[in-house]
Every structure is written in structure tokens, then in C-alpha cells.
């Protein structure tokens, strides 16, 4: 199971990276899609995904962290486990 879901996490990051190659955000503009996906990407270490391998995801991730609302939302203890 670990190998299967590890490979799936890498695949999904590839899909995100491909999408973010042409657009600054997942739906073109900042939307609920970005808000929903951000916590999953935030757990990249748990998924054993190196964001440096996905430069567009890394750019998106770093940019979203600069948003005060994202920082505030991610400060909720449950999300940072």
C-alpha cells in the first residue's frame, strides 16, 4: 500500500505541476480549489514528495503561504499535524 500511494502522490503532484505550468492558480484565478488542495500539498514530507521536483507546484505553494488568510488557516492545530 505504501508504494502504491507513494506513487499516486507523485503522480498527482505531476498533474498539479502540469496544470500550474500555464496558470498561476489551479482554476486560473485563486479559488476554493487552491484552498482545498493546499493542505494536501502542505503534507508533502509525509507523502515523501520533494517539491523541488515539481517547480510549478513549489512556486504555487510558496505564493499561497504569503497570503495572510492561508497562514491564519494553517495555524489551526489540526491542519499542522
Task: Compose a concise summary of this entry.
With 81 residues, the chain is mainly α.
What does this structure look like?
- The protein is an all-alpha fold and 81 residues long.
- The chain is built from four helices and no strands.
- It has helices at residues 2-20, 32-42, 55-65, 68-74.
- α1 packs across α3 (55-65).
- The longest helix is centred in the first third of the chain and has 19 residues, at 2-20.
- The chain is globular, with a radius of gyration of 13 Å.
- The mean pLDDT is 91.
Task: Name the descriptors.
single chain, 0% strand, globular
How much of the sequence is in beta strands? under 5%
Taking the sheet with the most strands, its summary is: none
Radius of gyration: 13 Å
Unreliable spans: none
Strand segment count? 0
Categorize the overall geometry: globular
User: What oligomeric state is this?
Assistant: single chain
Fraction of residues in helix: 55-70%
Structural class label: mainly alpha
- Provide mean pLDDT, rounded: 91
What is the ordering of alpha helices and beta strands?
HHHH
Number of helices: 4
Cα(first) to Cα(last) distance is 22 Å
Secondary structure blueprint with pairings:
Elements: H1 2-20, H2 32-42, H3 55-65, H4 68-74
Helix pairs in contact: 1-3
Amino acid at each position: 500500500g505504501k508504494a502504491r500511494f507513494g506513487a499516486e502522490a507523485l503522480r498527482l503532484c505531476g498533474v498539479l505541476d502540469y496544470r500550474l505550468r500555464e496558470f498561476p492558480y489551479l482554476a486560473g484565478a485563486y479559488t476554493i480549489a487552491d484552498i482545498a488542495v493546499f493542505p494536501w500539498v502542505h503534507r508533502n514530507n509525509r507523502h515523501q514528495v520533494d517539491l523541488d521536483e515539481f517547480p510549478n507546484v513549489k512556486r504555487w505553494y510558496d505564493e499561497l503561504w504569503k497570503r495572510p488568510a492561508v497562514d491564519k488557516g494553517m495555524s489551526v492545530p489540526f491542519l499542522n499535524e
